[in-house]
């Protein structure tokens, strides 16, 4: 989908379209500089001049759990992005990690579409 | 008019429960109907006297309308606020406002569920949150596990502390013949229970039961002339800051830190005046969070506060004296059962678990994923 087409979509559809195109984008208000996640039509202070910007993709684990089932286990984390907003995600390559650990985003393709997941930032020696 | 103006203006004059635990062969509405009939009878009123209806359930799109039809009511005022398990604490406030405004004269607050015998798992109409769905959180435990993980990291709360909450609940349940989960429970058993969402194991989760509850409120002047001992509305307040756990501003401080102080101010009482504390324990971490946020211990100290039986029978603070959602009853939306226990304690009808001279009880409802927080304070005539 072209940038022009995405710009006509609502915030959820635009976020998902960017992801499908391999881009992790979040919203930022031009007037106040506030970042917003998850995508919506206003910031908490009421700014509506939201623009899509590339997420830095770096963040810190704020909270984490491991869901356990007979079929296997998977972690669910809340990641605080360096832009100051929080998102739910997962670290697919580790069982779990400590709160406060630095992480780095990548886009993963799944049967249900694209999603942002995280790796331990140290792994790449970054 | 402010919150203080509602103090003592209404009273619960009838309370009923039905199907607590397991009620095979009954629908949610049939159980609700039984509880409502008991509450109306307890109030010394007739069904036709009810002209205000407040209902929430997890199995009806329009619970208030379903209740009206089922019971054959023609209310002048009706309300269907659904903020999950905290709905009913909010209904107490709304019913008091409606009564005081003359919009109705006898308010029925009611709930019913047959989730245990119908399916054996939590029934929820909660829709998936699109920004969470790709990560497969389990609703609702993942959210509570995330909060617990954060509380542990920030404050050093331990799984043993969570276990103390579960053990206290069971000890109270063992004094309550109506509680569903009774019998001995050891710390070893709790600590070795199957892990579901780290750090929460099966022992940290509330029960899945059937159950219905209902109460009837009237204006205070009328309450005096009815047969039962009135339990007065002293003050209530709600607070909500988020819907999904990702948007909760701070995972270790709930909106109860706002609803609690407002409710205390409206009621004109402080923490030390509360004889029984009823907090919505969907998971063990809830009890710790709410004791902190409602000011019964400092923020971060909840884990240490619940150690050594402090909230168990014979402890310093009587918390969840029915056995709670953890060991007494949890049909999906537990909030009205908090009120039922507060009423039983203030009326002096709590049997072996009766707290001596219980005059003031706090009911704190929680809804969603630590989302909606509603605090209601109830009292006997002597403290008005």
UniProtKB/TrEMBL annotation, chain A:
Domain of life from the UniProt record: Bacteria
Pfam family, one: OB_ChsH2_C
Annotated ChsH2 C-terminal OB-fold domain residues: 52-107
Name of the protein in its database record: ChsH2 C-terminal OB-fold domain-containing protein
Organism: Pseudovibrio axinellae
InterPro entries attached to this UniProt entry: ChsH2_C (IPR002878), NA-bd_OB-fold (IPR012340), Thioester_dehydratase-like (IPR052513)
TrEMBL record, chain B:
Key words of the record: Acyltransferase, Transferase
Enzyme class, broadest EC rank: transferase
SUPFAM superfamilies recorded: Thiolase-like
Any one GO MF annotation of this record: acetyl-CoA C-acyltransferase activity
EC number(s) reported in the record: 2.3.1.16
Gene: fadA_3
Organism: Pseudovibrio axinellae
Name assigned to this protein: 3-ketoacyl-CoA thiolase
Source organism superkingdom: Bacteria
Domain Thiolase C-terminal: 239-379
NCBIfam families hit by this protein: PRK06158.1
């Amino acid at each position: 989908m072209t940038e022009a087409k995405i710009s006509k979509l609502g915030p959820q559809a635009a976020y998902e379209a960017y992801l499908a195109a391999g881009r992790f984008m979040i919203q930022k208000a031009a007037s106040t500089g506030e970042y917003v996640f998850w995508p919506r039509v206003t910031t908490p202070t009421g700014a509506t001049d939201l623009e899509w910007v590339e997420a830095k993709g770096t963040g810190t684990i704020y909270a984490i759990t491991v869901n356990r089932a007979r079929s296997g286990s998977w972690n669910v984390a809340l990641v605080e992005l360096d832009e100051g907003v929080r998102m739910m995600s997962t670290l697919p390559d580790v069982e779990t990690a400590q709160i406060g650990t630095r992480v780095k985003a990548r886009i993963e393709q799944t049967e249900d579409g694209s999603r942002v997941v995280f790796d331990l930032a140290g792994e790449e020696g970054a | 008019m402010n919150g203080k103006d509602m103090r003592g203006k209404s009273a619960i004059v009838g309370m009923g429960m039905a199907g607590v635990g397991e009620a095979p062969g009954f629908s949610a509405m049939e159980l609700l109907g039984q509880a409502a009939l008991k509450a109306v009878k307890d109030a010394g009123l007739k069904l036709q006297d009810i002209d205000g209806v407040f209902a929430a359930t997890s199995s009806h799109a329009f619970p208030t309308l379903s209740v009206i039809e089922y019971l054959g009511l023609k209310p002048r005022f009706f309300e269907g606020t659904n903020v999950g398990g905290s709905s009913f604490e909010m209904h107490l406030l709304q019913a008091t406002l409606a009564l005081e405004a003359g919009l109705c004269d006898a308010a029925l607050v009611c709930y019913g569920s047959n989730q245990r015998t119908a399916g054996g798992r939590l029934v929820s109409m909660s829709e998936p949150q699109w920004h969470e769905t790709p990560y497969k959180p389990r609703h609702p435990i993942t959210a509570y596990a995330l909060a617990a993980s954060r509380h542990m990291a920030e404050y050093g709360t331990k799984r043993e502390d969570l276990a103390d909450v579960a053990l206290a609940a069971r000890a109270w349940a063992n004094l309550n013949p109506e509680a569903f989960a009774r019998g001995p429970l050891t710390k070893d058993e709790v600590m070795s229970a199957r892990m579901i969402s780290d750090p929460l194991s099966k022992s940290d989760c509330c029960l899945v039961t059937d159950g219905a509850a209902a109460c009837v409120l009237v204006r205070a002047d009328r309450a005096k002339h009815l047969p039962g001992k009135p339990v007065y509305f002293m003050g209530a307040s709600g607070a909500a800051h988020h819907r999904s756990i990702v948007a909760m501003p701070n995972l270790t401080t709930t909106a109860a830190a706002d609803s609690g102080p407002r409710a205390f101010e409206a009621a004109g009482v402080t923490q030390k005046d509360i004889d029984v504390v009823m907090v919505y324990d969907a998971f063990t971490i809830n009890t710790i969070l709410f004791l902190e946020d409602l000011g019964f211990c400092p923020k971060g100290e909840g884990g240490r506060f619940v150690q050594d039986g402090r909230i168990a029978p014979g402890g310093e603070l009587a918390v969840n004296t029915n056995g709670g959602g953890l060991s007494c009853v949890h049909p999906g939306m537990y909030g009205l059962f908090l009120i039922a226990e507060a009423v039983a304690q203030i009326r002096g009808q709590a049997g072996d678990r009766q707290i001596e001279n219980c005059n003031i009880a706090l009911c704190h409802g929680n809804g969603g994923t630590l989302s909606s927080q509603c605090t209601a304070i109830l009292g006997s005539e002597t403290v008005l």
